[in-house]
Amino acid sequence: MNSFLKQFEGHDISFILKRFAELFPFENLDVLNGYEQKITSEFLKEKLIDHQRGGLCYELNALLFLTLKKLGFDVQLATGTVKNEGVWAIDDTHATVLLQRDGHLCLVESGFGNRLPFSPLLLDGESASSPAGTFRFRTVTTEKGTLAMEQLVNDEWIVRYGFSPEPMEWSNLTKMKETIHYHEQSTFTQAPVIAGITDGGTFSIARDRLRLKWPDGSEKIVTFENDYDFLNEVTRYCSPSIVKETKLYLNAAFRDGQKKLK
């Protein structure tokens, strides 16, 4: 962990957030492959740092929290609820990080798919942009709390997740993981999701397609003819450890009688 921290010493939080986005893609292979380890600092170090994996919010933002805390920042974990296409997801299944800076509350994010601002978002302050888009942190009362992370989409601000400022206990991360693994409404149990940020835009890989997006709103979708195409793109964008876990998932799918996508 100490060698991992050295790369961030002397840098501001924006550098750390950008570096996290480069190092750790958003991916749900542990869910699909049935890994059930508790969320501990040792687990995060082994999975994300030593094995160069990605993860979901309760892993990526947990590691971000530990990193910032060890670097001397005043941070806390918080739990929120995601909103997709106007519909709220399972309650309290998004872990995020709040930062107190110069007497002000900020949101820092490393575990929200590829929708990642590269700067702390000041509560009710200016928006911030990255290759993923433009984001802001607002006092907004929703069914899920009094705070919200919003994204500018087609000239309209939409809520991406809502939450309250109360600190979340570390033990809730493992409970959140269990919910994602077993809840009947979990969106992460059916198929692989791998997403990240490139130098010029974002990528997301599903089993049937690759989607590339750029800040100007343009995008490119490449449809896969079979799982070899899928695996080739995972290999192109991800670490060998993620490729290995993808192969394990595909082998299990074949054993279960699933057909390759045509």
Question: Summary?
Answer:
By secondary structure, this protein is of the alpha+beta class. It folds into 2 domains: about 1-180, Arylamine N-acetyltransferase fold (2-Layer Sandwich); about 195-255, no CATH class. The protein has helices spanning about 1-5, 15-25, 30-35, 40-50, 55-70, 170-180, 225-235, 240-255, and strands at about 25, 75-85, 85-90, 95-100, 105-110, 120, 130, 135-140, 145-155, 155-165, 195, 200-205, 210-215, 220-225.
User: How much is the radius of gyration in Å?
Assistant: 18 Å
Helix content: 25-40%
Globally, the shape reads globular
Structural class: alpha+beta
Q: What's the CATH architecture of the largest domain? A: 2-Layer Sandwich
Total beta-strand segments: 14
Gap from first CA to last CA = 43 Å
The parts where pLDDT drops under 50 for at least 5 residues are: none
Number of domains: 2
Task: Provide the CATH top-level class of the largest domain.
Answer: Alpha Beta
CATH topology of the largest domain: Arylamine N-acetyltransferase fold
Largest sheet: 9 strands, antiparallel
Q: What's the rounded overall pLDDT mean?
A: 95
Order of helices and strands: HHEHHHEEEEEEEEEHEEEEHH
Query: Helix segment count?
Result: 8
Strand content: 25-35%
